[in-house]
Design goal:
The chain has 10 helices and 14 strands. It has 289 residues and is α/β, with parallel strands linked by helices. The chain folds into 2 domains: 121 residues, 3-Layer(aba) Sandwich (Rossmann fold); 142 residues, Rossmann fold (3-Layer(aba) Sandwich). Strands 3-4-2-1-5-6-7 form a 7-stranded mixed beta sheet, sandwiched between helices. A 7-stranded mixed beta sheet has the order 9-8-11-10-12-13-14, with helices on both faces. Helix 3 packs parallel to helix 4 and helix 6 packs parallel to helix 7. The longest helix is centred in the first third of the chain and has 14 residues.
Length: 289
């Protein structure tokens, strides 16, 4: 099912659900970029979160948010997603871990992920086990950490499943204008290719860099390649997991199947997606496009 990601990725109102350090940072990052939309803190007990007056629950918000950062535990996350979907929210970032990526250690993880998907219904969700995204074009961040992005009028989008890699890439000093950074997380509902297609709808995006751990939906990748070609937007990929050890690490990290290197190379070549072999090469290639 194709989902409209425009409200989620380009929000005019943001709800931050929770009151811990991660949620405080998500609010502070929006303040630092002078986001001119609404930012609403939601907490059942706190009067303020990061200097914002807190609403006690989602029902008390002025309206359904375009995007929500859910920074609470995994069980409460499912409840929040269900309520947001019922309200008509534009989408949510699910920060909590302990879903399918933890199924080897916790047998309930896979079931909880199924419940999360059911709760979301047609509403788009990023994650779970997801840092969120930075929209440097509009100053809209659902992002619970420091970063190196600066305001841009146009630029490239970078997608990765790894929040650590995402943070590091924002700190680049290569004169590369970064418009979006998206940490995709588990991709329980929306695949990396689908997120990239949503970014192609923004005419300010000049190229897209993809740090790929695994291919899940080949039809979505084909649709992405076709749409990018039609719009004249270059795609560049860094496919990780060349060795058996790297593939095993990828599975434990975000529940992705890395797949074989030869197959990945053949797929990218067929789709016309340029492949690079290092993060520095990814950044330098994007800078040239």
């Amino acid at each position: 099912m194709s989902r409209d990601l425009s409200r989620l990725l380009r929000p005019r109102s943001i709800a931050v659900i929770g009151g811990g350090a991660w949620c405080e940072q998500a609010i502070l990052q929006c303040k630092k970029t002078d986001f001119d939309g609404n930012v609403w803190a939601v907490h059942p007990k706190a009067k303020t979160v990061a200097g914002l007056q807190a609403f006690p629950n989602l029902e008390s918000l002025p309206g359904p948010p375009d995007a929500a950062f859910i920074g609470i535990n995994r069980h409460a996350t499912i409840e929040a997603v269900q309520l947001l979907a019922k309200m008509g929210a534009g989408g949510a970032v699910c920060f909590a871990s302990g879903f399918a990526e933890a199924s080897e250690q916790d047998q309930t993880g896979t079931q909880l992920q199924a419940e999360l998907l059911s709760a979301a219904g047609a509403m788009p969700i990023l994650g779970p086990n997801c840092y969120g995204f930075i929209n440097a074009l509009d100053g809209a961040l659902l992002w619970p950490d420091q970063h190196g992005c600066r305001p841009q009028e146009n630029g490239v989008a970078i997608l990765t499943q790894s929040s650590n890699i995402a943070v590091n890439l924002t700190m680049q000093n290569r004169a590369l204008p970064i418009a979006y950074v998206v940490a995709c997380g588990n991709m329980a509902q929306i695949s990396q290719a689908e997120i990239a297609m949503g970014l192609l709808d923004d005419p300010r995006v000049t190229a897209i860099g993809l740090h790929i751990e695994g291919f899940s939906d080949l039809r979505a990748w084909e649709a992405l390649a076709t749409k990018a070609h039609e719009k004249g937007i270059p795609l560049v990929a860094l496919k990780v997991g060349r060795s058996e050890q790297a593939q095993a690490a990828t599975i434990s990290h975000t529940a992705s199947l890395a797949g074989g290197n030869t197959g990945a190379q053949a797929l990218l070549a067929r789709l016309g997606i340029a492949r690079v072999d290092s993060l520095s090469s990814l950044l330098e290639t994007l800078k040239l496009l």
